[in-house]
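User: These chains co-purify. Model them together.
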Amino acid sequence: MSVGFRAVQWNRDKLVYDGILLAAVALFIAGFAAIHWQLHPPTKLPDAIDIWIRATGTCAFLMLTVILSIGPLARLDRRFLKLLYNRRHFGVLTFLVALTHFGFLLSWYLVQHNLPNLLTELTTWKDYAKFIDFPFKALGLAALLVLFVMAATSHDFWLLFLTPRIWKALHMALYVAYGLVIMHVALGIMQGEYTVLIPLMLAGGLGSVAVLHLIAGWRERRLDRGIAVSAEGWIAVGPPHAIPDKGARIVAASGAERIAVFRDGDEIGALTNLCAHQNGPLGEGRIIDGCVTCPWHGYQYRLADGCAPPPFTEKLITYRVRINRGIVEVDPQPLRPGTPAAIKCPSNLL
Amino acid sequence: MAIILFYGLALYALCGIVIGIAFVTLGLAQVLPHASVTAPARILWLPGAAILWPYVLMRWRQARAAAKTHRAL
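Assistant: Joint model of the two components:
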């Protein structure tokens, strides 16, 4: 985790994930092109290239929609966590599909010997003030640039080098890229072709992403509101047996960070819900080999003090825990990262 | 206007490539003195170093200055 860097840390799960992803992308693009070819057989080379432009563009849009849906889906249903583990490979592949889309666009101009037309289209500044005839390709290029920056900085090194706060902010630009792509399609192909399929795809994609985020946010807010707080400010978590063994319950004081309260047999401890690696939701993870394990990338921490096991050096904020009248309570005041704070629970309460 | 934009982007990209290559070959040892980095990882980081070269250059200079201070002590 913090001692050496390799290009890609492959394991069996990642290979399976990437294999399925590549197969799905290849099948979609080939299937789209084959259907289009049958419905509108191309008579000239630019028409054939146009089919590939549409196939790769549609694929990239759908991949972006899926990527943005994975986060809220995983919060609503733990079965989607598996999709979350390798989301960065998904993102890099999306960039490559979008780059292929751009490559086909360039070749479309090149085979007709009118590449300068593309430059003229992009640099006719007065057209940027229009709605119809807006240079929509500039929006696609801007989205491609955002995806490039994200793909180029997706490795763990960049997380360390840029710091998690900057890295996370940079990667939130995915929402900007999605907005640019929607405008690219809405002001581009949707203006030229009167088919219901394109607005349906845009509205379906944007609508599903927005609804999933709203539902996930609403559910988490409702959970946060249901927390009881004692006169001293300690948060009631529930009886010890209500915390799943080798799992956690997530609590939060009003307006404060979420706290993951874990139980490992008779040991109870509270850690920040944010993993030191990528702010992954630790409380949705499990205790594996005696360590709290982040569901996103498997980073591990000791329950007793929030420290990663040697030789790793990451430390998490911990919280004081107590048992008051049979109820586990947690002090929302954070302790310094790596402070031992876990307690033993009397066996009669388990 | 278009010409200025084009040459501006080309200059940024050129600086990025030069600084990016220098960073992944020489700079990493100063920024991450205790980490081992494989050759494929360095190649993988080159596009990121090239596109974010002003930030990379700033951090590289900071790491060099910190190393000098450490040696002086």
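Chain B touches chain A at residues 1-2, 5, 31-32, 34-38, 40-41, 43-45, 47-48, 50-52, 55, 59 (CB under 8 Å).
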